[in-house]
Write a structure and sequence with these properties.
Layout (H helix, E strand, L loop, with lengths): L13 E3 L2 E3 L3 E3 L15 H12 L4 E8 L17 H12 L4 E7 L7 H4 L5 E2 L17 E2 L2 H20 L4 E6 L4 H6 L14 H4 L1 H14 L5 E8 L11 H10 L4 E6 L5 H4 L11 H10 L5 E3 L5 H10 L4 E4 L1 H5 L3 H6 L14 H6 L18 H4 L10 E5 L3 H12 L3 E5 L8 H5 L9 H13 L3 E3 L6 H7 L3 E4 L3 E3 L12 E3 H6 L9 E5 L3 H12 L3 E5 L12 H13 L4 E2 L2 E7 L2 E6 L5 E5 L2 E4 L3 E3 L2 H6 L5 E4 L9 H14 L1
Parallel strand pairs: 3-4, 3-12, 4-5, 5-8, 6-7, 8-9, 9-10, 11-12, 13-14, 13-16, 14-15, 16-27, 18-25, 19-20, 19-25, 20-21
Antiparallel strand pairs: 1-2, 17-26, 22-23, 23-24
C-alpha cells in the first residue's frame, strides 16, 4: 500500500490478531435504531454501515447487538439463527467496500429499557436500581442466580459463534457504560458476596468466563475485543487508577484488543462528548489504557480532525482511532482525509441531537444535524444531476439556505444565494455566541467553503424584494428567510433598556457590563442568553413564563451542563410568572398561581420569548407563477437539524 503523504500513520495498515486493516480508522459501536421490529437487520441498517465502509473506514463496528432478546426499540438482536441471514448480508455489504466488520454483543442488565421488558423484571449482578443522568428511573432489577449467570455466559458464546458464521471478522464484548458486564466488574453496582462479587478477582470472573467460552467456540484466530469504561465518574465506581490492573487481567485471559470508554448511565453527562468539550479531552484515559495494555487499543470519543488523530497515533497514545458520531456527520471522513481534502470533511459539532430520536428506548432512528443523509442513505445518498438545469434563487444565508444552495449546485443548477446581512451564517452566528458553543460555526464554515468550490454566487447585504425577484427572473426560488423574535404587547416593551436575545447575542446591542439584567423567557434561548451575560460579569435573573423545568426544549446532555453553569454563576430562575410591565428600573411580575406581584430590579431587560416565521416574502410571491419552496424557520421556528434536512430534500427536488 502506498505511503499516504497527508496522514501516513492514520493510513498505515495494522493488525488485530491475524486480521489486517487497511488503515487505523475504526467506526465505534453505536445503537442506530435502524433494525426491524424484532431486531432483525434491515435494508436501512445495511445501507447505513455500507456507506461508512464505502467512505474508507478500515473497521466498521456494529453496536449494541443483543444476545438475549429485544433490549430497546429497533436495536439489533442475534440470539437466534433466525437473524443470521441479515447479518450475513450486512457483513457482505461492508466487505464489498474493502472494510473489515466487527459485531458488538451486549446484555443491558439493569439498564434494559422498560419498553422491551414486557412486564419482566430486569436482572443485574445485584438488586441496585439504575438512574439515567437525565432523571429517568429504570425498574428495580433482581440479582442473578448462579445458574442464570452461566446461562448468560453460554448465550454470549452462542451469539459469538453466530457472529463468526455470519462472516464478521471479529467480535466485541460490551463491557462499558454500565451494561451487564460492567455491573459485575464495578463495585458501584456489584454488591454480591459469592464468587462473582467482592474482590477484583471475583468481580472479573463474569467477563473472564465469557471471554473463555467465546474463545473456545470461535477459536484463537478470531479476534475478541472489549469496550470498557476505564473511568465511571461515579463515587465508588471504577476509576482510571483501577483500570490498568483490570486491563492486564483481561489481556491475560485472552482479550485481543481493548476499546476504552467512560461513564455509566448515572454519569453519562460526563462521558458524552458535548459541544463544550475540547477535542481529545479523554487523552489521559487513553494514555493510561495504552500504558497498561500489551494488546491493541482502539480509542475514541471527542476525536474530530485527521491532524489531531495523526498526532495521537504518532505519539503512541493508541493503536487505532475510533470515530462514532463524526462518521454520522460525514461517512466519507476517511476518504477525504486520505486525499487531503480536509476542508471537505463535514465535522460533527457534538450537539447530540442524534441522540434525541433514537437513544435507548425512545422512538425514531438517529438523525444528524449537519448531515441529512444519515439514516437516509438510500434516499439521499447521491445528489443526482438534474435533468433540466435551472436558474435557482436562494433567499437566506443561514444553514438551510446554504445547504439548499449546496445540493442544488451539486446537481448542476445555476444557483445564486442572497443574504441581507454582511456575512453568511444566519442564526448560526447567534447560536454560537453563548459559552462553549463555537463548534456551531463549523456548520457555517463547511457550507461556506462548499459554496465557493461549487461556484455558487453569493450576494450579501441585499434584502430580496418582489421587485428584485422580478428583475432576476429565476426559474426556482428557495426561501430560507428564517424567523424574527416575538415581541409581546407589554407596557414598556419598547423602552431603551429592552432588547431581544438575538440582538444581544449577535452583538447588535452591546451591553458592556451591566450591573443587573433580567432575561424574560426560560427556554433554551433564554437560559443560554443568561449564561452568556453572566459569563461577561453581569448579575442575571431568568424570568420564566410557565411552570416546570428551565430549558426543557434543549438536548438533555447539553441542558445539564447549561443548568450547572447557571447554578455556578448564581443565576436565579423564577418560574410561572406573568410580566405586567417593563420599566427603566426593572420588571413587574405576578405569580400565575398565587397572584402575588414581585418587582425584579434590572438595569437592562432581554426578551427571549420565542420566534415567529418571517413569511412576508413568501406571501408576496405565492400568487406568482414560479416554482417556490420554503424551508426552516420561515415555515416554523425549530432547530438547525430540521432546516438542514428540509434544505437537502428540497435541493434534490428542484
Amino acid at each position: 500500500m502506498a505511503h499516504n503523504k497527508y496522514f501516513p500513520t492514520l493510513f498505515s495498515p495494522a493488525n488485530i490478531g491475524k486480521v489486517r486493516f487497511k488503515n487505523r480508522i475504526v467506526m465505534l459501536p453505536m445503537g442506530t435504531s435502524y433494525a426491524g421490529i424484532n431486531g432483525e437487520v434491515t435494508g436501512r441498517t445495511i445501507d447505513h454501515f455500507a456507506e461508512r465502509a464505502k467512505g474508507g473506514t478500515g473497521l466498521i463496528t456494529v453496536g449494541n447487538v443483543s444476545i438475549n432478546g429485544r433490549i430497546a426499540l429497533n436495536q439489533l438482536v442475534l440470539d437466534s439463527d433466525w437473524f443470521m441471514l441479515g447479518h450475513y448480508e450486512l457483513a457482505e455489504a461492508v466487505h464489498a467496500h474493502g472494510a473489515k466488520i466487527c459485531c458488538q454483543l451486549n446484555h443491558p442488565g439493569r439498564q434494559q429499557y422498560p419498553v422491551s421488558l414486557e412486564g419482566k423484571q430486569p436482572v443485574s449482578s445485584s438488586a441496585i436500581q439504575s438512574h439515567y443522568y437525565t432523571g429517568e428511573v429504570f425498574p428495580m432489577p433482581r440479582a442473578l442466580e448462579k445458574a442464570e449467570i452461566y446461562q448468560i455466559i453460554e448465550k454470549y458464546a452462542a451469539a459469538a459463534l453466530r457472529v463468526k458464521k455470519a462472516g464478521y471478522d471479529m467480535v466485541e464484548l460490551h463491557g462499558a457504560n454500565g451494561y451487564l458486564i460492567t455491573q459485575f466488574v464495578s463495585p458501584f453496582m456489584n454488591k454480591r458476596t459469592d464468587e462473582f462479587g467482592g474482590s477484583l478477582e471475583n468481580r472479573l470472573r463474569f467477563p473472564l468466563e465469557i471471554l473463555k467460552r467465546v474463545k473456545e467456540v470461535v477459536g484463537n484466530d478470531f479476534p475478541v475485543g472489549m469496550r470498557f469504561s476505564v473511568e465511571e465518574f461515579a463515587k465508588g465506581g471504577i476509576t482510571i487508577k483501577d483500570s490498568p490492573e483490570i486491563i492486564r487481567r483481561l489481556a491475560a485471559g485472552g482479550l485481543d484488543y481493548i476499546s476504552p470508554s467512560a461513564g455509566i448511565y448515572e454519569t453519562m453527562d460526563f462521558a458524552h462528548d458535548t459541544i463544550d468539550k475540547e477535542e481529545g479531552w479523554k487523552t489521559n484515559l487513553w494514555e493510561a489504557t495504552k500504558k497498561a495494555a500489551n494488546i491493541p487499543v482502539i480509542a475514541g470519543g471527542s476525536l474530530k480532525t485527521p491532524a489531531f488523530c495523526e498526532k495521537l497515533l504518532v505519539k503512541g497514545t493508541m493503536d487505532f482511532i475510533g470515530l462514532a458520531r463524526p462518521l454520522l456527520a460525514d461517512p466519507h471522513w476517511a476518504n477525504k482525509a486520505r486525499e487531503g481534502r480536509v476542508d471537505d470533511i463535514r465535522l460533527c459539532i457534538s450537539c447530540y441531537e442524534c441522540q434525541m430520536g433514537s437513544a435507548a428506548g425512545r422512538q425514531g432512528a438517529r438523525r444528524c444535524t449537519v448531515n441529512a443523509e444519515a439514516g437516509r442513505e438510500r434516499e439521499f445518498n447521491e445528489a443526482k444531476p438534474a435533468e433540466v438545469k435551472k436558474k435557482v434563487m436562494v433567499v437566506g444565508g443561514g444553514p438551510g439556505g446554504m445547504e439548499a444552495a449546496r445540493v442544488a449546485a451539486l446537481r448542476g443548477h445555476r444557483v445564486t444565494l442572497y443574504e441581507k446581512a454582511p456575512e453568511l451564517g444566519g442564526t448560526l452566528m447567534v447560536a454560537a455566541a453563548p459559552p462553549g458553543k463555537t463548534k456551531i460555526l463549523w456548520v457555517r464554515d463547511y457550507l461556506e467553503k462548499q459554496l465557493k468550490k461549487l461556484k455558487v454566487k453569493v450576494v450579501l447585504n441585499t434584502e430580496v424584494t418582489p421587485e428584485l425577484v422580478e428583475k432576476v427572473s429565476p426559474d426556482v426560488i428557495v426561501l430560507a428567510t428564517g424567523s424574527r423574535p416575538t415581541i409581546p404587547d407589554t407596557p414598556g416593551v419598547r423602552g431603551k433598556n429592552v432588547a431581544t436575545a438575538s440582538d444581544v447575542l449577535s452583538g447588535k446591542v452591546k451591553l458592556g457590563k451591566k450591573k443587573s439584567i433580567a432575561v424574560i423567557g426560560g427556554s433554551m434561548v433564554g437560559c443560554e442568553t443568561a449564561e452568556y451575560l453572566a459569563d461577561k460579569g453581569s448579575k442575571v435573573t431568568v424570568v420564566k413564563m410557565r411552570p416546570g423545568a428551565a430549558a426543557a426544549d434543549m438536548q438533555p446532555a447539553q441542558r445539564i451542563i447549561l443548568l450547572e453553569h447557571l447554578e455556578k454563576a448564581k443565576v436565579p430562575i423564577v418560574s410561572n410568572r406573568e410580566v405586567l410591565e417593563y420599566t427603566s428600573e426593572g420588571v413587574m411580575t405576578r405569580d400565575r398561581t398565587t397572584g402575588v406581584k414581585d418587582f425584579i430590579k434590572a438595569d437592562f431587560i432581554v426578551l427571549a420569548q420565542g420566534f415567529k416565521p418571517a413569511r412576508e416574502l413568501e406571501e408576496a410571491l405565492e400568487e406568482k407563477d414560479i416554482e417556490l419552496y420554503s424551508l426552516g424557520d420561515c415555515v416554523e421556528p425549530r432547530i438547525i437539524k430540521e432546516a438542514v434536512y428540509e434544505a437537502s430534500m428540497i435541493g434534490r427536488r428542484i
